[in-house]
Amino acid sequence: xxxxxxxxPDYGRLYPEIQMxxxxxxxxxxxxxxxxxxxxxxxxxxxxxxxxxKVANLLPGREDSYDRLMEEEHRQFSIDEPTPETVMxxxxxxxxxxxxxxxxxxxxxxxxxxxxxxxxxxxxxxxxLGISQKGVNKRRHKVLAKLRKIIKT
Length: 153
Hints:
The protein is mainly α.
């Protein structure tokens, strides 16, 4: 008497109303084999043997548990990469800043360009304009306050 289990059932007994033709039986067996593969074969580690019967290597299961991932410090997603939400928020902030910069006067734009894009110091920019560093600092604070106000509204 053959032994039947979950993956090798007696189809005639399970489906008495169906005529067990070879093509139907083949489909049922393939389906059960796929189910066995997904539920058992992928999850289990196996040993691969060389021709002399000695263990050659261990084939790990392809399903990982949380504990195993933490032990081996695997990371599916890089922590260093920004999330899509972060990228979108950053792009939106840049867009708001660009639109706010368009509303500045030519002098204010020149100050922003010199200090933030050309990376000049306040002292260097003050020398170019022929004014004091303190004057440039006051202008910078006024322009940044104006930009904040434009962006918030």
